[in-house]
């Protein structure tokens, strides 16, 4: 059983129920500003969750310069930080290739932003063709990507890559108004 979430922004320690499952996937924005303290609190929260495997990407609010080293320290607790990286999940029903990337189109000077066009296309072109489960922070164009003004903020190039790779599932967050399945 997979449990998927995003954009929790330090809402931890029982503020919302987290269903039990075999794999927890978090699509970024675990913190407000990514301070070492916020990340450490989030790592503690994740460590205490019962899911044997936790696959995590950063989001635009996860700003700390130390994020990679902090996530590396958490790896012994079943927490796997993916930044333009793949993780193989093997289970009783076969295996899945999971790929995670924190990038999204430029947005307010936050973390993991790249200009639309060639810079983001280069990032998305790294998504392996064999990807079964794709985790990105931002959405593809036209899918749960409308903000309060009605503007569609998703990434055209991500949509093209998702249509090419055709993962079984694509998990993302970032646009709070676009929550849902």
TrEMBL record:
Residue spans crossing the bilayer: none
Recorded superkingdom: Eukaryota
Residue ranges constituting the Calcineurin-like phosphoesterase domain according to the UniProt record: 18-177
GO function terms (MF aspect): hydrolase activity
InterPro entries in UniProt: Calcineurin-like_PHP, Metallo-depent_PP-like, UPF0046_metallophosphoest
Name the UniProt record assigns to this protein: Metallo-dependent phosphatase-like protein
Species assigned in the record: Syncephalis pseudoplumigaleata
């Amino acid at each position: 059983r997979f449990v998927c979430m995003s954009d929790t922004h330090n809402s931890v320690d029982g503020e919302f129920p987290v269903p039990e499952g075999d794999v927890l996937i978090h699509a970024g924005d675990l913190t407000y500003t990514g301070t070492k303290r916020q990340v450490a609190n989030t790592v503690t929260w994740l460590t205490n969750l019962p899911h044997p495997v936790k696959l995590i990407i950063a989001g635009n609010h996860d700003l700390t310069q130390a994020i990679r080293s902090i996530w590396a320290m958490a790896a012994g607790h079943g927490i796997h930080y993916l930044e333009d990286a793949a993780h193989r999940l093997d289970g009783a029903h076969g295996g899945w290739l999971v790929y995670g990337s924190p990038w999204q189109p430029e947005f307010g000077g936050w973390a993991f932003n790249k200009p639309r066009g060639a810079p983001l296309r280069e990032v998305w072109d790294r998504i392996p063709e064999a990807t079964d489960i794709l985790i990105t922070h931002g959405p593809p164009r036209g899918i749960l990507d409308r903000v309060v003004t009605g503007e569609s903020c998703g990434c055209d190039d991500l949509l093209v890559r998702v249509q090419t790779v055709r993962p079984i599932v694509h998990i993302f967050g970032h646009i709070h108004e676009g929550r849902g399945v």
